[in-house]
Every structure is written in C-alpha cells, then in structure tokens.
Automatic annotation (TrEMBL):
Active-site residues per Swiss-Prot or TrEMBL entry: 17 (proton acceptor)
Organism: Pseudomonas delhiensis
InterPro entries: Glyco_trans_28_C (IPR007235), PseG (IPR020023)
Keywords, alphabetical: Hydrolase
UniProt name for this protein: UDP-2,4-diacetamido-2,4,6-trideoxy-beta-L-altropyranose hydrolase
One Pfam family of this chain: Glyco_tran_28_C
Positions of the Glycosyl transferase family 28 C-terminal domain: 255-341
Amino-acid positions noted as binding substrate in the UniProt annotation, renumbered to this chain: 173, 279
GO molecular function terms noted in the UniProt entry: hexosyltransferase activity; hydrolase activity
Amino acid sequence: MNIVFRTDASLKMGSGHLMRCLTLADALKAQGAHCHFICREHPGHLNNFVLERGHSLHVLPFIARNMLDDPFVPVHAGWLGAPWYEDAEQTAAVLETVQPDWLVVDHYALEKRWEQEVSRHCNRLMALDDLADRSHYCDLLLDQSLGRTSEDYHGLIPDACRLLLGPSYALLRPKFSELRARSLASRKNRSLSKILISMGGVDASNATGMVLQVLGSIVDPNWQIQVVMGANAPWLSDVCHQVELMQCFTQLLVNTPDMASLMSDADIAIGAAGSTSWERCCLGLPTIMLILAENQRLIGQRLHEAGAAFLIPSIEQIPALLPIYVENLHSPEELTRASKNATVFVDGIGTQRAIEAMMK
C-alpha cells in the first residue's frame, strides 16, 4: 500500500503538523505500507526528519508567493509558500508517479479546491484538521480536538465523508501507550520536584525564556528542570545562557528523541497547548499550559475547564499566573487531581484507531 502525506514544517507554522503525520506514517510503515512525504522547503523546515524515519521525500521549492488577495483562501494561506493551484499541480505530479492508495493532507493553508484538484490522482483522501474553519473534499477527516462534534463540520465536507473526532483519535507514538500504565501508577504519591518545559520545536515568541525568568525568581534549589527545544528555535542560544544561570539543576535538551520518557518522569510540565497536550494527558502529566497561537486556544480552554490543565491565555500573563500555578501544584493532592482529570481524555491508541478507519 502506498500512502502520500502533504504537510509542512517551518518557523512560521511550527513542527506539529509534520510530527503527527510522521507518527501516522511510522505506524503504517510498521504494517507494511510505503509512505511518501511531499514537503515544501520553508525556512526552518524539518525535511531531514522524514528521511531519518525511513520514508520517501519529495521536496517542493519555497517561492514565497501567496494568493492572499483571493477572498476564498483560508486564514492561514500565507503558510503555504505558494499559490494553492501551483501547489496542487506540483503535488499532482508526484501523485501520478506514486499512485497512492491514500493521500493524507495536514495543512491549514489547504482546502476544498486544492483537494478536488489532487483527488483525481489518488484513490482516497484523508484530511487532518483542528480548526473546522474551511471546506474539505475528502473521504475521511480526523480532528482530535476536545469537544469537537459533527455539527462543527456541517456543510464543510461531502455527505459521504466519515468523521473521526476527539482526542480518542490523537496521533501518538507507541512509546506513550507503552509508558502509560507505569506513568499513571507513579503519580499517586508525587511532590513537585521535576519540571519539564517544552514550547514546541520553534517557540518563536521565546515563551521558554520568559518561563525560565519567572522560575528563576521563585526557584527552589531542590528542583530539577529539563528544557526541551528544537534545533531551529530562534531563541536557542539565549535560553542556553539562561539555563546556565539557574540556581537549581537545569538541563537543556535539543531535538530529544524520547519525549515520552521525559514526560513520564516529570512531576509537572509547563508547555504550549496543541497536539502535545494529548501526549501529556496520556501519561497523566499535570500541566501549566500556554496559548502561543490562536489555533491552540480551543484545546487550552477546554482542558482548563475540565481541570486537566492550568491555563495561561497569553505570554504576557506568564509573570502574573505562573507563580500562582506553581504554588498550587506544590500540593500533592492538587498534583493527583490534575493528573486524574487529564488521563480520561487519551488512552494512547488513537493512531491505531485512525489506521483501522483507513483500512475500512
């Protein structure tokens, strides 16, 4: 079986779309599929990750031309790096060669018109979305957002399209489900000591630096802090300097391959909302969650309302809210409560559910 993925990573859009596609591709490959990626060479791209995972890569050139004056383009059209019809033509040329059974599209800049153009060159089309803000032309649509309902996509998809909705379909790597039972069992008698900070692969706004600055003012010398960043993060060198000045054990990890183990071992996380939220929920990791992009707001608000995370709505509110939340989480009872509230949403096998839906 041939599967093609059309997705991108960049300094502007981050790495989340590519990483969840890689998770799905790795699982499909383990079941005998051949996976191919079509990715544009944006500034800050992570195309090398595709090759390192053993998948085929087809690179589209970055030409920095958009169709933002087109009233029908999506809100995030500027993320594509080309007019949609040129992207469709370039993608179709690859599809004609590969002849895929499935084309998986994960890109906020692409919508129904693009999907209609390329659908003639694949047997089935699957869209990954979180926004429900534009029309799709697809056979299967996966939206892992908490609280998402079929009504949100009313009028946006074909009648025959099957919807896979909610975090039970969260695309997580196998290591998370493997560590789930151990991680949950270990959270019964924890106190606040190990703190994991992760704002995604890019963190263009330097939320990591702001968090470290605040933690430095309330630091407990017994804390053990691990900071995770991507190699393309523009503030990496500044954060490295801050880490050296912290008055407790603080470690900076770049492009770490084992986030599951880091999350399992941590007592709390301070991190961005987004797809990594489901990784933390799977392992019952209490989280102080930051909104770093508008498309993260729905996840953050709903997890906060469910008592599964402590929400900081914007980076400007880090100095005011972070010390309060850290103080609250010094309570073992509060740690346990937050952990239990998080675990109910994700069991770690959403990737397999998605694959079963594709096979049907």
